[in-house]
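Subject: sequence -> structure tokens, single chain

Hey, anyone have a minute? Need the predicted structure for the following. Not urgent.
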Amino acid sequence: MDGLSVDTEPMWLETEVELANEYGADWSLADQAHCLGGPMSKVGIHLAEKSKRPDLAEWFSDEMVRRMAKRCALGVGFMPGVEVLLEEIVGQGIPVGLVSASPRPIVDAVLNGLGKNYYQFSISATDVMRSKPFPDPYLMAADKIDVDIKECIVLEDSATGVASATAAGAYVVAIPHLVPIEAAPRRIVLKSLENVSVALLKDKFSR
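Reply:
Had a minute. Here:
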């Protein structure tokens, strides 16, 4: 979701900087990269370490969720190329879901803030016992659409998300953001989703 489907990474950075500064700490792109892809507890722990307030790790996580949900509810935009690709996917009757390491309040705020929702369902970190990088959320998604995970294509931007999709056994399209990701068997790496079509994806994974 974040940074791949919708342009929320600037909101994450703004919220992280805001909280860190309120507790006398700084926050850089390196800190954001460290927390990229979640889980939410990782962000809370890192904020607690930066601010030297280990007792507030859980509170930082909860506060990040509250502030991010509020920001996302005001409206979010799709990343370049995403809406065109989603239009084509839906037009061809291909099932598509949104799988996120963000908690349910943020996922719902994003979906409510979109001008149009193309996703048949969403899975948040709240919906699984183990979120990314474990395979659980993507295995749940494949089960929801009654398709073998090995026949699913996952689009991801973080190393954590790629690890989750790879562990599940899916094909993976990686669009790296902040953290580099290497190509691998059943995984391709693209610069963006602009000009990416269903036909291109089928071709890439049929070789």
